Amino acid sequence: MEREKAFKLLLEYNKDKFHIQHALTVEAVMKWYAKELGYDADYWGIIGMLHDLDYEMYPHEHCIKVVDILKAENYSEDVIHAICSHGYGITVDIKPEHEMEKILYGVDELTGLIGAAAKMRPSGSVSDMELKSLKKKFKVVTFAAGCSRDVITKGAEMLGWDLDKLLSDTLEAMRSTENSILTQMSDLDQ
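Above: the chain sequence. Below: its structure as tokens.
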């Protein structure tokens, strides 16, 4: 799988900068986890980048419409399963099975929560965010209410991790990749 092909496909189905930045963030976080755990970072990254491919254009068919899109682009069944499984219990009954799928399931919502918390900071960045601060935001269910705490918690449980591990590792992943994502978003504007 080539990143350039995946990125072109992402831009074909996503025009909103928020959705594009979310895709790039999840891509970067998935690559970070893959490297930490000894897996193929490029493969995990593409899964992360394309995970919400159908959401902007087909929000009521999220994790459903993507099957036809990816099949038309000759993506393999394992890629399709991985992407669809992040909608488990929400829009589809495709359960995350592999470690990568379980991480995607948990970090998709969590990256949104961390991103929203970063915007509230004076720095506007995750670079100076502490786990303690993130945990406070996590407990306030009205903050970033669209980011399901249940899904994040289930993701940690699926992995056999405590919630703090998922929160702290994802925060670290976002800290280490934030500048790269901002650069990529800036490049889109040019």
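The first helix runs from residue 3 to 13.
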